[in-house]
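Quarterly update, task 2.4: flavin-adenine dinucleotide-bound model.
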Amino acid sequence: MAVDFKVIVIGRGMMGAAAARHLSAMIEGVALIGPREPAERKSHHGVFASHYDEARITRTFDDNVIWATLAARSLDRYAEIEARSGIPFFTEAGCLFAGPAPQPGQGFLGRALDVAATLDIDVEMLDPSTLRERFPQFSLNESFQGYFEKRRAGHVNPRALVQAQVALAETGGVSVIDETVTSVRDAGAHVEVSVSDRVYTAERVLVAAGGFTNFNGLIPSPADISVAARTVVFYELAERELELFGEMPSSVVFGDRDEDHVYILPPVRYPDGKTYLKLGGDTEAHRFDRLEDAGAWFRSDGNPAEREQLVALASNLMPALSGCPVTAAPCVATFTRTALPYVGYTDSPRIALLTGGNFVAAKSSDELGRLGAVVMTQGWLGEEDFGRELTPVLR
Ligand SMILES: Cc1cc2nc3c(=O)[nH]c(=O)nc-3n(C[C@H](O)[C@H](O)[C@H](O)COP(=O)(O)OP(=O)(O)OC[C@H]3O[C@@H](n4cnc5c(N)ncnc54)[C@H](O)[C@@H]3O)c2cc1C
């Protein structure tokens, strides 16, 4: 039977858009199916994405060599994607980690220093007094050490990165279809992908639907993922705070307790014309197993208790923010059993998965997209592409 497409990628998000771009350079007959960002989040009753924002931290300093490699390979291509698409998305503001001095090889910082040595990542170590002198924006514990990645680190604009990937995919011949998929069926020799009013057929399908991967019958059996609520807070900055915080890097601060862990994005201009500094943490109010619950979360203003906790952390860490208007927003993080992304086939030899950002994949999405494209064209990932480690775990 003649099929409509060789490959259909489901999900016009960070990984799916990247996969479509890479596929466009490898084969003809590719479609990318997924809805664009809803115009009105609070009245939208469909699927959502975890990239509806203007800033995500990018860095290679990481406590896991695979994540660090995925980030490094993506960073290698940022400039080329920007130049070819004409869409800038990377700001090289640097990335600072601060926290209690680690034991060698232990905790995030101890492991990350080992990975940095293995991969030769350029990280400057700052003793407590140098750290406080160099980054006066923060009121840090006097014993905290700093680890600063000045180059090849900072933040990406996830909306702009997706836009650049989709533009290049389209230029490369990919058919972009603005629809939500309602079911996927392995029909034996091909796959049927249903949208509102029709069915598309393809030889193979790559499901890159982020936190919505287990909904809408996209894969034959559910992926072993946990979709967790995350709340972020935005501080609206005026001139005075902009002067103070304008030059800061992306930052991650660890505390003595897990709940004191916070990440901070430097001031970024948002589509409403205002400039916000964003903070998020690691605690979560809920996990979602049903589409209705995930949708309701995305229509909310996040979790009030988490918002208060983040505001309290911010007041300690950046007292100069006090008095700035604060808003909160919801998002979801998709955690896998392996803590690594899933890139590989499901029970069906025609339907593969590309998901599991584990809260850190925006920066690495281009390489993850390439791996998804390799799975679609070659059928498997080799050792150099972490094929064994990235094998999906199904429930
Ligand atoms: C608050 C927050 C902060 C984060 N901060 C960072 C950070 O600082 N640095 C970093 O590297 N990462 C960060 N991340 C993680 C990063 O944003 C995600 O890992 C990344 O967005 C995952 O990409 P994805 O393509 O898997 O999912 P998404 O970007 O969510 O894309 C999934 C796409 O699938 C589509 N879709 C879903 N269901 C269907 C369907 N049935 N039919 C068609 N399309 C469908 C959706 O519309 C969406 O566009 C953060 C995440 C959150 C929530």
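Highlight for this quarter: The pocket of flavin-adenine dinucleotide is lined by residues 10-16, 33-35, 47, 49-51, 56-57, 158, 180-181, 208-210, 212, 216, 218, 230, 232, 280, 331-333, 355, 357, 359-363, 365 (CB under 6 Å).
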